Task: structure prediction
Amino acid sequence: MDIIVVDHLTKYYGKSRGIIDVTFQVKEGEIFGFIGPNGAGKTTTIRTLLGLIFPTSGSARISGKDIVRDGPEIRRDVGYLPSEVFYYEGMKVGNLLRYAASFYPGDHRHRIAELADYMDLDLDRRVDELSYGNKKKEGIVQGLLHSPKLLFLDEPTLGLDPLMQRKFFDLIRKENRENGVTVFFSSHILSEVQRLCSRVGIIREGRIVEISDIRTLQEHSYKKVKVAAEGIDPQRFRLPGVADLKVENGTVRFYFKGDINQVLRQLADLQVQDVTIEDPTLEEIFMHYYE
Result:
């Protein structure tokens, strides 16, 4: 079942491009990665889906509800961590979180205490005393305190140290595995997406350029090839499907897309010292879409 269905969603800011004809679906219970550099349209997509800004055209539904008509109802079951967090500076952390919890039915005090303990967040400190990283931890607790069914994370790890990033990832996996939370994870840090998400959408200049599971992206993309051999002539590897060929100290490196046997045939009469053929990282796949 699809929990998010986006159909040709478009947003312009006056004449400036936000997103154009964005179409994708997110399945209930999955962790979906949404990647692109700053300015590609990631935040605009999230803010439009949350009803914080209105689309110019197109439509989207969350849990079967229209994002424009049913915005308040949708937001009751959604958690959101924006890329930049701003709070009432004079309040204590605990008071601010309890205030945020008051917008949702039920008693969330135990949940707040549990999450704050896990994220090592001091509830008795004032917000204006917090570092940027601690404000980000407060945002994580706020986004999860009402046990949402759907969680939007926009560049969530900015400001977190490596240890806290690891704890954050473990927390998100636990929420997904044990509580069935669907996660929409937006980031330009591709290693994060690769370690957390099963499926990914790539956005470029406001348009979706690829939607695929990460394994398929790697399998159907270029292979990385490195060949070290005596007297190697790089010209023999200038084949159809070869890209970014480089030679250094008797070693030829390139990317190849096609029948890998074409490359292997070029090795038959060489005195090969070393050869490596491997899948590219998500980072390298991503750069391919932007070149």
